[in-house]
Structures are given as structure tokens and as C-alpha cells.
Design goal:
Blueprint (H helix, E strand, L loop, with lengths): L1 H23 L8 E10 L12 E5 L5 E2 L5 E8 L1 E8 L6 E7 L4 E8 L13 E4 L9 E2 L3 E6 L10 E7 L8 E7 L3 E4 L7 E9 L5 E3 L3 E5 L7 E7 L2 E7 L7 E2 L7 E6 L5 E6 L6 E6 L6 E2 L16 E3 L5 E6 L2 E6 L6 E5 L5 E11 L2 E11 L6 E6 L7 E4 L5 E7 L5 E7 L13 E6 L6 E2 L9 E8 L5 E8 L7 E6 L6 E4 L3 E5 L3
Parallel strand pairs: 1-7, 9-16
Antiparallel strand pairs: 1-4, 2-3, 2-5, 5-6, 8-10, 10-13, 11-12, 11-14, 14-15, 14-16, 17-18, 17-40, 18-19, 20-21, 21-22, 22-23, 24-25, 25-26, 26-27, 28-29, 29-30, 30-31, 32-33, 33-34, 34-35, 36-37, 37-38, 38-39
Protein name: Fibronectin type-III domain-containing protein
InterPro entries: 6-blade_b-propeller_TolB-like, Carb-bd-like_fold, FN3_dom, FN3_sf, Ig-like_fold, WD40
GO molecular function: carbohydrate binding
Length: 513
């Protein structure tokens, strides 16, 4: 008996830790769910109609749902226990209903929502958030600014609406309403002017149309960008001149006269842009600064006109004090301020001066030379001549070849001239099928096809120009059906490394500001 007792005691001692461990092991109760369904309708005063688009939520939270056209909704897997069902829709008084959800059972309920009463309280003062009220011009913002303010519901069921007003400087008393009656408390204003101080103001109103005006906050936009790309964009039938540095928000429309403004050309000192405009009925030459301001009409009674001319055919002198242009069969120079008009050359019989270039170098030495394209009555009747700045020493560089020649332009060292030629097609309306960019030595030798096989089939390479440093050629490419988008490309001087840089652009010029 004693031996049995000893064995039993040892057994108990061995099992006791296991018993204790088993008693201390924690357990996790499984989640238990029920479901809620129901309908939402308006109050009797509002006709007891089913309500669509009511937001249904719960507390504790589950999935948010929206009522259907018959006012019904359904929430599955709602935790059992006490739950509050919330119904909310703008213009109606929000409703919160406490319910008890049971495991595995569906709770069916009905919610009645009344039309929210009009708020009789004037909205609170608006709290502005950003941008800060910047009183010093040292802090500059982009020309695209996100305005943020803070204000919400004034009373249960009443949501404020806001107007956003922008003032262009302190002298702008009325401002411009850029947003009206919006619910958001943020608005992005775009296409602001550079180097301009603005003020912005928010006006808040409730459903009863009580209003409160916020104070005015001030900010200043960044300096005008140094845009080296000049080109023309056609927007809704209006051609205007733009500048760009290819950076976001730096595309600047420089002309807004309502006519056709074309052929931008930067002056040698990079302070003025010469261009052509037909706002007076005929194309004339104008200048403006690089911000599109201080416009001056250069040509007087002799407009920029020739066979099939749409505003091209002029160029700055190398010194930047004169502009060379054609008027029918006469070639003129004129001072950039509109004085000193001088005729320097006559075109061959029955031909007009259509385009020109003026180089400070010729055959790699410092010697000025002019290249001109003359045209007969047909758009494919073209010749390129070289001459001195006084019109003397006329030299036929390219005779009247098969096809259409356009846009002669000197290389910076004056050893080559580039131009476009469509050698496969001649059309009385000027259509071209396969225009390529070529270069030729100034003595007429060593023709080189720069477009090569990299030019997309069915397109034309036109309006080619060397960049200011001579390291690249910038040009326009367009489909030969005359209906495709005009795009600006750039390539190396041997025609390699073609790259599209600007969509919907033509008549490019590029400099390094």
C-alpha cells in the first residue's frame, strides 16, 4: 500500500505542470455576424417617397453602401451586438438609428428622412489655409496655384457653397470669379501671369443665400521663364505665337490679337521677336519683347506679300538693327523701328521674293551674305539665289528643279544652305507628298539628304533651321494629306537622332536665353 501511495504521488507531481499550463492557455472567441437590410423613404410631408443615393454607414464601422432607386440597402457581415445605423444625404436631416444585431439573423429596418430646414445662421468667417498671405515678393509661386480654405456645415443638414475670386493686383477692384457655387474647399487656378501679384478671396453662402466674404490674401507668381523655343500653335482656327522651355506650366502664349500671328524670329541680341500678323488684313511685320509686350509695327505701306505667301519671308540682319523682307518682286531692308526703308534688289522677271536668310558668315569667314527663294506663279516654280547685303553679286545656287523648294537657311559658319525639297510631286495648290531636308554647299555641290530613311512615310519635313549654336536642326513634320497634326522635331546636323519635342506646333525658332 505504501508503495502504491508513493507511485501515485509521483504521478501527480509529474502531471501538475501540464494541468497548470492547460488552464493558463488563452482562447479567442470567433467573430459573430448578422446582417442589416432596409429601405429609406422621405417623411410624410415630403410624400413618403423612396430615396435613392442615401449613404448608409454603421458604428462600429462596416462597408458603406448607397441606397438603390427603390430606396433599398443591404449590409452583410455586421458584427453582432449594439450597432448604430447612419443615413445621410445632402438636403435632408441625417438620421442615426440604434439597433441590436443577432448572430446569423437579418435585421430589417425602415428609415424616414425629412427635408433639412434652412439655416438661419450666417456662415462663419472663412479660415484660409494656403497659399499663405505672402506680403513680400521674394516668395514666388508657380503660375498654377492650389487654393485651400477651411469651412464646413454651419448647421445640421446645411452645407456651404463657395465662390472663388481672383484679383490681378491691388488696383483690380472687382476681380474675376474663377469658380462659382462650388462645394469643395479647394480650387486650382491655372494660367496665371508670371511676375504678377494676385489677391484671392472666398465668398461663402448657405441655402438661404446668406453670404460672408473672406478677407483677401496675397501671393506673387514666379519670374517669367527663360523660354528658348518659339513656335506657332493653331488653336480653334487661330494661329498664335508661343514660347516654351519644355517645362510644365511654362508654355506662354505671346500673341492674342485675334488674327494670324506667325513666323517668330528672335533678334540677334535676344531682346525682341519679329513676327508677321494679318490683323490689318494683309501680313505686316511687327516686333515684341520676349514677354509678348511692347508691340511695334515695323512695315508701313509695303506689306509682306508674294506668291503663295502666308506670313513668311523676312529675317533679322546679323547686327539686329534691320529686317530684310520681300514685297512682291522687290527686296527691302527696314530698320526695326520702322524707319529707313530701302530697296536693295529686284527679283527676276515674273518672280517674287518668298523667303530669305541673312548670315554673318560666308564660307567660314566673317562676311555677310543673303539667301533668297524666288517663286513664279506656281508654288513649285522655285529658285534659290545668294547675294551680298546690297543686292550685288547675285549667284544662282539652285535652279528651278522638279518639285517644290522652300525655306533656305545658312549654316552658322556660312558653308552650307539647308532647304526642303519634294522632288516627286508638283501640285498647283502647293500640296507636297514627300518633302525632305537637304543641305548643299554654297557653291552648289555636295547635296546631302538629311531626312533620309528616318522620316516617317507619308509625311513632309519642312521649315528647317539651324539652332543658334549650329549643333542641331529644328524643323516641322506633318502628314502629306494636309490634315494631320503639325509637330516640331529636332535632329543632329547630319540628320541622325530625330526627336519630336513639341506637338501641335510649326514655324519653330530656337535660341539659348
Amino acid at each position: 500500500m505504501r508503495q502504491f501511495y508513493l507511485l501515485f504521488r509521483h504521478f501527480i507531481l509529474l502531471c501538475l505542470p501540464l494541468i497548470i499550463f492547460s488552464c493558463n492557455e488563452s482562447t479567442v472567441d470567433p467573430e459573430l455576424f448578422g446582417s442589416i437590410s432596409g429601405t429609406v423613404k422621405t417623411s410624410e410631408e415630403a410624400g413618403s417617397l423612396p430615396m435613392e443615393g442615401v449613404t448608409i454607414t454603421t458604428n462600429p464601422g462596416t462597408t458603406s453602401v448607397t441606397t438603390n432607386s427603390d430606396g433599398s440597402f443591404s449590409l452583410s457581415e455586421v458584427n453582432v451586438g449594439d450597432v448604430t445605423v447612419n443615413a445621410k444625404k445632402e438636403g435632408y436631416t441625417a438620421v442615426s438609428t440604434p439597433v441590436k444585431v443577432q448572430e446569423g439573423k437579418e435585421l430589417v429596418m425602415q428609415v424616414v428622412m425629412g427635408i433639412a430646414p434652412l439655416d438661419s445662421t450666417i456662415p462663419d468667417d472663412i479660415t484660409y489655409v494656403s497659399p499663405l498671405d505672402i506680403q513680400k515678393d521674394a516668395t514666388r509661386l508657380p503660375n498654377k496655384v492650389n487654393l485651400v480654405w477651411r469651412n464646413g456645415e454651419t448647421e445640421k443638414g446645411d452645407t456651404l457653397r463657395f465662390d472663388v475670386i481672383i484679383f490681378e493686383g491691388a488696383s483690380d477692384e472687382n476681380g474675376t470669379k474663377v469658380a462659382s457655387n462650388i462645394l469643395d474647399t479647394t480650387f486650382t487656378v491655372q494660367n496665371l501671369k508670371f511676375e504678377q501679384t494676385y489677391e484671392w478671396q472666398i465668398v461663402a453662402r448657405n441655402k438661404q443665400l446668406d453670404e460672408v466674404e473672406g478677407k483677401k490674401w496675397r501671393f506673387t507668381t514666379e519670374n517669367f521663364p527663360k523660354n528658348g523655343y518659339l513656335f506657332v500653335k493653331d488653336t480653334l482656327g487661330s494661329r498664335d505665337i508661343y514660347s516654351w522651355d519644355l517645362a510644365e506650366n511654362h508654355l506662354v502664349r505671346l500673341t492674342k490679337d485675334g488674327g494670324s500671328e506667325v513666323s517668330p524670329r528672335i533678334s540677334p541680341n535676344e531682346e525682341l521677336i519679329a513676327y508677321a500678323s494679318n490683323k490689318s488684313g494683309e501680313y505686316h511685320i511687327y516686333t515684341m519683347d520676349t514677354k509678348g509686350e511692347n508691340v511695334v509695327k515695323v512695315t508701313n505701306d509695303k506689306s509682306l506679300v508674294s506668291y503663295n505667301n502666308s506670313g513668311s519671308g523676312f529675317v533679322w540682319s546679323p547686327e539686329g538693327d534691320q529686317i530684310l523682307y520681300g514685297h512682291y518682286g522687290d527686296l527691302y531692308t527696314i530698320n526695326y523701328n520702322g524707319t529707313g526703308e530701302t530697296k536693295i534688289a529686284n527679283a527676276p522677271v515674273n518672280r517674287h521674293f518668298k523667303s530669305c536668310d541673312w548670315s554673318a558668315h560666308f564660307n567660314n569667314v566673317s562676311q555677310e551674305k543673303i539667301a533668297v527663294l524666288t517663286q513664279g506663279e506656281k508654288p513649285y516654280d522655285n529658285e534659290i539665289y545668294l547675294m551680298d547685303p546690297d543686292g550685288s553679286n547675285l549667284f544662282l545656287l539652285l535652279g528651278n528643279l522638279e518639285g517644290t523648294i522652300s525655306s533656305p537657311h545658312f549654316s552658322p559658319d556660312g558653308t552650307k544652305v539647308i532647304f526642303s525639297l519634294d522632288s516627286l510631286f508638283q501640285d498647283d495648290n502647293g500640296r507636297q507628298l514627300n518633302a525632305k531636308i537637304y543641305s548643299v554647299n554654297i557653291d552648289g555641290t555636295n547635296w546631302t539628304d538629311l531626312s533620309g530613311d528616318d522620316k516617317p512615310a507619308g509625311t513632309n519635313d519642312l521649315q528647317a533651321r539651324y539652332t543658334e549654336t549650329g549643333g542641331k536642326i529644328i524643323f516641322m513634320n506633318v502628314a502629306n494629306d494636309n490634315e494631320g497634326e503639325k509637330n516640331i522635331w529636332i535632329m543632329d546636323t547630319d540628320g541622325s537622332n530625330r526627336e519630336k519635342i513639341i506637338s501641335n506646333g510649326e514655324m519653330p525658332d530656337l535660341y539659348n536665353p
